Amino acid sequence: MAQLSTKVRLYCKANSVDTVDFRKDVLLVQEAGQDPKIQSWNLSISEPTVEQLASYETAGNAAEANAVIDATRRTQYLSWQQQMEMIYKDQKNGTTTFKDHCDKVRSDNPK
């Protein structure tokens, strides 16, 4: 099940609001044993209904799954210094080490 914050972000983006500050713009609360809910809404667009947020469940699940894959890829791509070294050596030696490395990271962690 997608997190409420993810569904709120997707709703906002669909309504031309690109960033949401969950300390100022939208405050979420979760009381013991209950689902999280919107406590305060301070955006220029109307607050979404429960049904509107529910419509973002599938997209929210996909966004959260892709975020995990992106985080894994970032760790496997290596540092920018290591990447630059691979690129330099590829250009000097006519090899494809950097491209091969990137292709492997992507194939090991598909979206």
Task: For this entry, give a set of tags.
111 residues, mainly alpha, 2 strands, Phenylalanyl-tRNA Synthetase, Chain B, domain 1, 2 domains, two-stranded antiparallel sheet, single chain
Q: Describe the global form.
A: elongated
* CATH architecture annotation name of the largest domain: 2-Layer Sandwich
Number of strand elements: 2
* Radius of gyration, taken over Cα atoms and rounded to an integer in Å: 20 Å
How many helix segments? Answer: 5
Q: What does the largest sheet look like? A: 2 strands, antiparallel
Residue windows where pLDDT falls under 50 for at least 5 positions:
none
- pLDDT averaged residue by residue: 97
Name the helix and strand elements from N-terminus to C-terminus, one letter apiece: HEEHHHH
**What structural category characterises the helix and strand content?**
mainly alpha
- What does the oligomeric state look like here? single chain
Concise structural overview:
The chain is mostly helical.
Structure write-up:
By secondary structure, the protein is mainly alpha-helical. It folds into 2 domains: 1-69, Phenylalanyl-tRNA Synthetase, Chain B, domain 1; 77-111. The protein is 56% helix and 8% strand. It contains 5 helices and 2 strands, in the order αββαααα. It has helices spanning 4-14, 50-54, 57-76, 80-93, 97-108; strands at 26-29, 37-41. It has a two-stranded antiparallel ribbon with strand order 1-2. Strand 1 and strand 2 (37-41) form a beta hairpin. The longest helix is centred in the middle third of the chain and has 20 residues, at 57-76. It is elongated. The two termini are 18 Å apart. The model has no long low-confidence stretch (mean pLDDT 97).
